């Protein structure tokens, strides 16, 4: 057991050091006066009541010679007009503004500055009208930006099918995780009914897709290596394709990584320990971005899955059901109850309520 304790201490120390280094990389001292910057929009612009919010990555800071290259993430607010409304993911902009690190206006409320720091946001700024211009349209293409473009095509397809208002908002959230059209009333209704998790694409949806794939592919003989390889290839392509059309959102990517490990473990040995797979998925994702450990969605998803793995079978055995259909519904109920057991402490901590 001493070796196990030693390994845990090493991993914890390495994680703390990596997280500290990552947070230090976010910190940046901006010029005190208004400065000219060149940046690229790295996410879908979000229309507010009077502004358009864009997440950008600074490419150049032209406050003095020589020109510096900060490469920091910043949230920019543009005045809402016919020009800013046309901004898209991948556009390169030249703007003049005063940027400042995230701060809290009220210390008694939500720690917004800390939240943005964990999201790798180094600063915030408001760009006045006439103080910016698009230099290149759709010039930078990352994998996530390409995924966002395909997501926009699906949204346009829904519009062509004449989905509008609440129907369009709910359909977009359920299928591709686009929640910007959800109004406050819809969010509150789902939250009070205890079904808000349905609107947030995560492990539930990926798990259903994974289960459907296993059901469809179970008729394919899996004893031969070629057939097993074919099955896992179909599963991985489908899972990651689903993650791609959802814009590679962190919650979906987390779930896809976990179920990909499940599929790979079954391919290698046919047997696996689910908790080990869950731990491996968490380790891989935290190696990529250690700040995800502060993400509420990350904590909720892993606690829910861990609770299901630990408690669902015990809950199911509390009532012996002979009817197959009734047993199916009893299984769904026990999964939901087990997940609630895992997330109740976090829900009370962050939201002071649970449904």
Task: Please give a structural write-up.
The protein is of the alpha+beta class. The protein has twelve helices and seven strands. Among the domains are: 102 residues, Nucleic acid-binding proteins (OB fold (Dihydrolipoamide Acetyltransferase, E2P), Beta Barrel); 54 residues, no CATH class; 61 residues, no CATH class. Strands 1, 2, 3, 4, 5, 6 and 7 form a seven-stranded mixed sheet that branches. Strand 2 and strand 3 form a beta hairpin. The longest helix is centred in the last third of the chain and has 28 residues. It starts with a helix and ends with a helix.
Which tags fit this structure?
single chain; 355 residues; alpha+beta; OB fold (Dihydrolipoamide Acetyltransferase, E2P); seven-stranded mixed β-sheet; globular; ComEC/Rec2-related protein domain-containing protein; transmembrane; Competence_DNA_uptake; DUF4131
Quick summary:
The protein has helices at residues 2-26, 112-118, 143-160, 165-176, 184-192, 196-199, 203-217, 225-245, 250-268, 274-288, 296-316, 324-351, and strands spanning 35-41, 46-47, 51-61, 73-79, 92-97, 123-126, 132-136.
């Amino acid at each position: 057991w001493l070796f196990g304790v030693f390994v845990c201490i090493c991993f914890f120390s390495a994680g703390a050091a990596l997280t500290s280094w990552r947070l230090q990389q976010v910190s940046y001292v901006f010029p005190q006066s208004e400065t000219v910057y060149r940046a690229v929009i790295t996410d879908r612009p979000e229309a507010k009541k009077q502004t358009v919010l864009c997440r950008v990555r600074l490419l150049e800071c032209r406050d003095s010679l020589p020109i510096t290259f900060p490469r920091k993430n910043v949230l920019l607010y543009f005045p809402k007009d016919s020009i800013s409304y046309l901004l898209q993911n991948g556009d390169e902009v030249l703007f003049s503004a005063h940027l400042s690190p995230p701060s809290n206006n009220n210390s008694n409320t939500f720690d917004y500055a800390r939240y943005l720091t964990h999201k790798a946001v180094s600063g915030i700024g408001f760009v006045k009208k006439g103080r910016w211009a698009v230099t290149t349209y759709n010039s930078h293409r990352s994998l996530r930006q390409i995924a966002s473009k395909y997501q926009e095509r699906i949204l346009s397809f829904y519009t062509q099918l004449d989905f509008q208002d609440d129907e369009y908002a709910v359909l977009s959230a359920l299928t591709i995780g686009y929640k910007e059209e959800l109004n406050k009333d819809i969010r509150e209704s789902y939250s009070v009914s205890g079904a808000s998790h349905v609107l947030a694409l995560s492990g539930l949806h990926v798990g259903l897709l994974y289960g459907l794939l296993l059901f469809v592919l179970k008729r394919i003989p899996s004893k031969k290596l070629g057939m097993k390889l074919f099955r896992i290839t179909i599963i991985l392509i489908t899972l990651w394709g689903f993650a791609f059309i959802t814009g590679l959102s962190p919650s979906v990517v987390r779930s896809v990584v976990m179920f990909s490990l499940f599929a790979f473990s079954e391919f290698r040995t046919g047997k696996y320990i689910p908790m080990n797979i869950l731990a491996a998925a968490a380790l891989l994702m935290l190696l990529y971005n250690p700040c995800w450990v502060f993400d509420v969605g990350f904590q909720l998803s892993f606690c829910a899955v861990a609770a299901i793995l630990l408690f669902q079978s015990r809950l199911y055995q509390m009532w012996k059901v002979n009817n197959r259909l009734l047993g199916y519904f009893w299984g769904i109920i026990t999964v939901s109850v087990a997940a609630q057991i895992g997330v109740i402490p976090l829900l009370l901590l962050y939201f002071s309520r649970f449904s």
